[in-house]
Amino acid sequence: GNSVTQMEGPVTLSEEAFLTINCTYTATGYPSLFWYVQYPGEGLQLLLKATKADDKGSNKGFEATYRKETTSFHLEKGSVQVSDSAVYFCALRGSNFGNEKLTFGTGTRLTIIP
Amino acid sequence: DTEVTQTPKHLVMGMTNKKSLKCEQHMGHRAMYWYKQKAKKPPELMFVYSYEKLSINESVPSRFSPECPNSSLLNLHLHALQPEDSALYLCASSQDGDRGAYGYTFGSGTRLTVV
Lengths: 114, 115
Hints:
heterodimer; A: mainly beta; 4-stranded antiparallel sheet; 12 strands; B: mainly beta; 7-stranded mixed sheet; 11 strands; 0% helix
């Protein structure tokens, strides 16, 4: 079945630091890939997505590129802010019939200190 | 309207109570989902409705009973819950039925405490 592996957290960075959160996946066919963010006490928000190989998703300064050769979808941001503190989930949706559920990674808690 | 609205935001119930969680979306999405999220864990899928029919039940105990009265509404009826059922319950919806390349739109959740 499909699976997503995220780097273990928690991750603590200083404001304006460079952020990378690693995400790799296992899936058959051509899955779509997503990053969701969850702020304290809230639901999940779609941060960005990519639906085919070499696509780059971007939003709010965050970027991730769909790398089929390395089965990866790493999240990056050049300069983080305190307001980016949240839990980040990598996820995929399979493209094959019966395999279309959204599968989440374990989540990475990010804390940005001023 | 690009939101999924869940009510109530917080709920405390006893183990003998019956209560319902409600979820509403007006984006024309034809798939709706219930998830359960425990602290510091990813969401776990409970149920999927596609075109108002239950398409997936992830072996959820019968004390949780979903209902989809129409394409915009999704309910989760709760009865005789256990303290370990305390969690954040998330509703989500998606375009293109329950297949395709679209992400899900999540509500802000109902924080349930069973006492």
